[in-house]
């Protein structure tokens, strides 16, 4: 059902973002807190959170992208990689959870020997054992799976590649393989879960001699871990400790294990753990130094000018959202366009433009009403992250569109085989991942800066260079990092664009005049958008921190006007888009 899939797309997108955000907050909080980092339990918790983020990233993005397609294909190679990755990360997680249970056992049953037993060397060795154990577990699974002959059918009744769904498709007797799966996954889950239950039974037995207060304190340290163990192992046992015949809620159990459990773990370790909450508060205070808010100087101090700007930018914002949403709806509702890679990427480009505009413009419009334009430290960092996340994703989407035009013109006979739906889906997934990595690097470095005053930002948004000027430290290294992560990327990718279109022009020499005109017309809109995006980007980030006279004007063009101009370029200069809009 397409309507249900749209709802699921939104739900699982939020679940994935919350999972990554929650687990990364735990990792950063522990790393920033020496007291927690020196504790074995929280040392293991870092790896547990990283594993949860990795497990979710192996499964969820592919599933989210597949909601856009009626035919959800995955290559044999990608299927095997996903199978290996899921079992690798979950195999490691099983051993990490066991190490955390052993840590609690020693802490409660042998408190006097705790520091000597759970020393840093042992903790490091246990983590290494976890990674090696996860690898061995997964490589055994993948080795046996690769022995299976798959000659058809090829329809997997699942949202991911996993063992039992694949066994059903094998063109051979899989009885022995099912026993091996049970031995390598099901029995391991049952045995380790049983050992964990026994270990907590021993802990409860040893607490008999302690006072009520001592019992409560001891059990409170175990509560979070017990919850996580139950959330992880119960679905695992239901999934793998059974015959190959599916039970009615098989997919639900796997969804719980691979998608929901990684989301719930950070909640369990923050809502039920005072040490984590206190450490998070301390980290927050440490990060924000003495500054709790910034004051944006905006575009003008003249009330009359600000009223004019309010009306102007309100109209621009409404036109931007309206124009980009018209493009998205037109493409999604037109099968012929949505099935074309160029328009498939265009729908994401328009969505990103609408999001970038929504991150910046509404805040700027509201600020026109206030003489004192304040923004909290948290909102400032959120805006910084969002702008660079969306802009980073847009860079990769524009690169994908340029590659699409190159293949269409230079390799027309191979176009449909090269730019298939799977490749397009992978490129979009790479765009979201690349944008996230680009932005998270920026925000992590920015959070290292001490802000102790002044707090006046001569800008209308929070961005890197205006913030670097306010930092109470030498920012020379940070400027180099900004250039490396933003400026140099803009220059390199823009140069590659110019080179790719140079190759396209060179290849058009053998075309007829009509052929050249038709080929170039498909590139015209994209070239215009690339220039509108990259020229301001290079001017802003490929420089030192010293401001140039029209810095804010360039930002307005890059982040406010360009998202408006993109739909104009792709509708006024594109007959297919205009025809599709008329049909709708």
Automatic annotation (TrEMBL):
Alphabetical list of CDD domains matching this protein: 7tmA_OR4A-like
UniProt keyword Cytoplasm present: no
Domain G-protein coupled receptors family 1 profile: 22-269, 323-570
Keywords: G-protein coupled receptor, Membrane, Olfaction, Receptor, Sensory transduction, Transducer, Transmembrane, Transmembrane helix
Superkingdom per UniProt: Eukaryota
Keyword Iron applies: no
Coiled-coil features, chain-numbered ranges: none
Membrane topology: Multi-pass membrane protein
One MF term in the entry's GO annotations: G protein-coupled receptor activity
Gene3D superfamilies hit by this protein: Rhodopsin 7-helix transmembrane proteins (1.20.1070.10)
InterPro entries: GPCR_Rhodpsn (IPR000276), GPCR_Rhodpsn_7TM (IPR017452), Olfact_rcpt (IPR000725), Olfactory_Receptors (IPR050427)
PROSITE patterns for the chain: G_PROTEIN_RECEP_F1_1 (PS00237), G_PROTEIN_RECEP_F1_2 (PS50262)
Transmembrane annotation, as ranges: 6-30, 42-60, 80-102, 122-144, 176-207, 219-241, 308-331, 343-365, 385-403, 423-445, 477-508, 520-542, 554-572
Family, similarity comment: Belongs to the G-protein coupled receptor 1 family.
Protein name per the record: G-protein coupled receptors family 1 profile domain-containing protein
Native species: Myodes glareolus (Bank vole)
